[in-house]
Amino acid sequence: MLGALTAGTWLAYGTWLLDGPQLLANIPSVLGGTAIVVLIMVRTRTLPRWAVLLPLGWAVVATGCGVVAGVSGVGLAATGIGLLARIPQVRAALASDDLAGISLPTQWLSLASALLWFGYGLGTHLLPVILSSSSAALLIVAVIVPTRRATRVTSVPAVAVLAGGRGRALEAVPHASAA
């Protein structure tokens, strides 16, 4: 849900600026995030309170930021919501040994995206884009590093594989002695 709200805020920011890349990038994200929320509600046959309250709260925050600080306020709201959405995964990656639910390819793609948006922000001098993408990149790295450490595959000697080791410890693997 926070991902869809983040994309929705960036979509509002891009609409306000008539910024084509923002519009192009965030329409699919809004649609995808909304589809996930709808699927959750259909599968659970419930309308969770958060599915109503979170978008309402988002609308109040984004509108308030826009009224107070204009388009930069909307961009900073998007930055805040985007960072808020990343915090649970960062906390899990730093605090837990069980990182099986974190997809490294997804994290690497997210990092590439954040770095590209950072370059775009620098090129267009859009401070909210620069702040959002650089802080997102740092948070993504904070997920990648412990996840890589936890999921490193230790090499298995070829002898163990040939002897049928496949994940279980071998008592002894005979090897040719020099005669």
What features would you describe in this structure?
78% of the residues lie in helices and 0% in strands. The protein is globular. The protein has helices at residues 2-17, 20-44, 49-95, 104-124, 127-151, 158-162. It has one domain. Residues 154-161 and 167-179 have low confidence and may be disordered. With 179 residues, the chain is mainly α.
Topology readout:
Elements: H1 2-17, H2 20-44, H3 49-95, H4 104-124, H5 127-151, H6 158-162
Helix pairs in contact: 1-2, 1-3, 3-5, 4-5
Give the overall shape, derived from the CA principal axes. globular
> What do the pLDDT scores average to?
79
Strand content: under 5%
Distance between the termini: 68 Å
What's the oligomerization state?
single chain
Report the radius of gyration as a whole number of Å: 23 Å
Based on the model shown, name its key terms.
179 residues, single chain
